[in-house]
Design a protein that fits this description.
The protein has a single domain (4-80), classed as Rna Polymerase Sigma Factor, Chain: A (Orthogonal Bundle), CATH 1.10.1740. It is 76% helix and 0% strand. It has helices spanning 4-12, 16-34, 39-59, 68-80. Helix 1 packs across helix 2 and helix 2 runs antiparallel to helix 3.
Length: 82
């Protein structure tokens, strides 16, 4: 199992090989979803997905990501308001 936190930290430290690895790892999922678009659009959309993935890898902040219990409490608080 891949530790994505380690991969993201390496990418943010400037490791271009980790960025390439992450994008290649995610490409099968991207391609699977792109099969529902027209062939003319697929290559353009794939390129956009690669760029977005690259940008997210560089900008993701683990410190700002809530833990499960924090998320659960926030989610419950939003839905319990009447």
């Amino acid at each position: 199992m891949t530790n994505w936190k380690t991969v993201v930290n390496k990418v943010q430290s400037g490791d271009k090989y980790s960025a390439e690895w992450a994008i290649r790892t995610l490409e099968p999922n991207m391609k699977r979803h792109l099969k529902y678009t027209s062939r003319e659009e697929q290559e353009n959309l794939m390129q956009e997905l690669r760029v977005k993935t690259f940008l997210v890898l560089h900008s993701f902040r683990f410190q700002e990501t809530p833990g499960f219990w924090e998320w659960k409490k926030e989610h419950e608080d939003k839905h319990l308001k009447i």
